[in-house]
Design goal:
The chain is an all-alpha fold and 202 residues long. It has one domain. It has eight helices and no strands. α1 packs antiparallel against α2, α1 packs across α8 and α2 packs across α8. It is globular, with a radius of gyration of 18 Å.
């Protein structure tokens, strides 16, 4: 029960920190970090780890949030055009393709890029490239993450109060799929200093 309450509490905290919108990336990254490190591995205080990761990833998270917003805007415009059923089949195909690509990239940013921001010291462009590498190397896990995100979005659309519980629960569940993906790109424990807390290799 205590773990469940902490998961829900961290999700609510992430929601509160996302209210300015531009801080969405930093909040999502901090949520993943706190859940993976403190809730799953029992290291540190969940709240302390959340705010530490939030401060550390604020600027790169801002850049990724702007990129996500642009992709979502392009997806929205494309969806409007597709719904209006244009006369030209070629133009319609272009907008359908644009909608599919922007929706896919948006889902990958939410599902993989924000968590990767909490673990790897990459620049935004490098994080986006790394996200694509993860998706190519682990297509089934990436697809499962996208389906989970889509199902969560649909649930919130049908039952808006679920938004209070979904972020923490979804992010916690995603750690079980993402952590093995991250470990595949990390050096073995023997290459770290003896006093390093390599909780992410456990």
């Amino acid at each position: 029960m205590r773990r469940a309450l902490r998961i829900l509490g961290l999700g609510l905290l992430a929601l509160a920190c996302s209210l300015p919108v531009v801080t969405l990336g930093a909040a999502a990254s901090a949520l993943y970090y706190a859940l993976a490190k403190s809730i799953r591995r029992g290291r540190g205080s969940p709240w302390g780890e959340f705010f530490r990761a939030f401060r550390q990833n604020l600027l790169p998270g801002l850049a990724l949030t702007v990129i996500l917003a642009l992709l979502l805007a392009a997806a929205y415009v494309s969806a409007l055009y597709v719904v209006n059923r244009p006369v030209s089949g070629l133009v319609n195909a272009f907008y359908i393709l644009t909608l599919a690509v922007t929706a896919l990239l948006s889902g990958l940013i939410v599902s993989l890029t924000f968590p990767a921001l909490s673990r790897f010291n990459f620049k935004p462009a490098q994080l986006l490239a790394f996200t694509l590498r993860l998706a190519v190397k682990f297509p089934l896990r990436a697809a499962a993450l996208l389906l989970m995100s889509a199902a969560a979005t649909l649930l919130i659309y049908i039952f808006p109060p679920a938004a209070l519980a979904v972020p923490g629960c979804l992010c916690y569940a995603s750690t079980w799929l993402i952590e093995p993906m991250f470990r595949a790109f990390m050096p073995p424990r023997s290459e770290f200093p003896e006093d390093a807390d390599t909780w992410y290799l456990e």
